[in-house]
Amino acid sequence: MEALLNPQRELVRWWPERFELLELLERPSMEIDPTIRRLDLRTLRRNPDLARALSGLNVPAWDLLGYQALAEGPYGRVRMVALLPFSPFDGNDPWVYALDGARSSLHRNPPRDEGTTDCSASLCLYFSGDPQERRWSAEYGLIGLFDLARRHLAAEHIWRATKKWPFEDAAHGNAARPANPQPHLRVKPLRKADT
């Protein structure tokens, strides 16, 4: 009952009846990558990492918009999940998880539950204060987000083998700072949001 009365529900429920925004996220991403689909409630409730995220929001599972996709590479086959608890069209970052495979990495977010000692499934794809050309935004669609996660999984695999991060590396925690702007790195969006 408490989750139903949580005033944060209105923020998390940014997406119902916003079909134009869902279409910007989903099309043509789901047509290009058939592994992308809406996250089922069973996975959200039963996976420990996702259940912790849901518990931290304290909203009903059906309020939370999420997607799942697959990644395959030398690291194996990995189920990835992107939770969008707040509107990415307002500049909010998604929460991206790798549910399977090795978790040791230089670039994983700490567990949301301070009581756990497990390595997190939550991928640190970029710093939220980074310039726009270094961050995912909704106009890149879900395929842009999951491709960024696939690149991250490949980098983790290389790091585990060589102990060297293969791309530009950034500090974490209190040492984290925004990267220097490099506008030439910006790629053309999949679609432009008119919100």
Can you give a write-up of this model?
With 195 residues, the protein is of the alpha+beta class. It contains 7 helices and 4 strands; from the N terminus they run ααααβααβββα. Strands 1-2-3-4 form a 4-stranded antiparallel β-sheet, with helices on one face. A hairpin with a 2-residue loop joins β2 and β3 (76-84). The protein is globular.
Task: Sum up the structure in keywords.
195 residues; alpha+beta; 7 helices
Whole-number mean pLDDT: 87
Number of domains: 1
**What is the element string, with H for helices and E for strands?**
HHHHEHHEEEH
Query: How many DSSP E strands?
Result: 4
Largest sheet: 4 strands, antiparallel
Q: C-alpha Rg, in Å?
A: 17 Å
Distance between the termini: 33 Å
Strand order of the largest sheet: 1-2-3-4
